[in-house]
Amino acid sequence: xxxxxxxxxxxxxxxxxxxxxxxxxxxxxxxxxxxxxxxxxxxxxxxxxxxxxxxxxxxxxxxxxxxxxxxxxxxxxxxxxxxxxxxxxxxxxxxxxxxxxxxxxxxxxxxxxxxxxxxxxxxxxxxxxxxxxxxxxxxxxxxxxxxxxxxxxxxxxxxxxxxxxxxxxxxxxxxxxxxxxxxxxxxxxxxxxxx
Length: 195
Fold this sequence. Notes:
The chain is mainly α. It has eleven helices and no strands. It has a single domain, classed as Orthogonal Bundle (Hypothetical protein af1432), CATH 1.10.3210.10.
């Protein structure tokens, strides 16, 4: 018997941005879906526009599981996680233990199939970077949504993420931002008028 999927089902119970006032809360499961969709798109953009040979399906699958260890660790807020190098280092150790604990829940015959999905040290660096970029884009989108709803709580995070994205060397990220992000600054009526 494996408890893996019973644990993964609890991703919907873990709230993101726990130290911030949220107009609309966001859980890890819905966040992972959005990261998967954007990772898929970044891989397509990268292949079609910039000559890479990434698998969009693989990118999406890795993204689905990218925060799975948070069912054990919870979502540690960024200001805490990166408060100093010691805390960051210790959290990485905790995260690695949680990832390996999840892998132990996978039946032995399937562990090779799940290893790179659940344990970041086994992940392909190209996909790891792409998913991290998608994760940052999703955090930025959350900030835009909160700002659009009149919540100023996310202003500092928005500026930090804008800077991080502007420094991202992946041309697919810039393409995605230029093509898709402006719509997040519009309301539904404005988006529908553009169709």
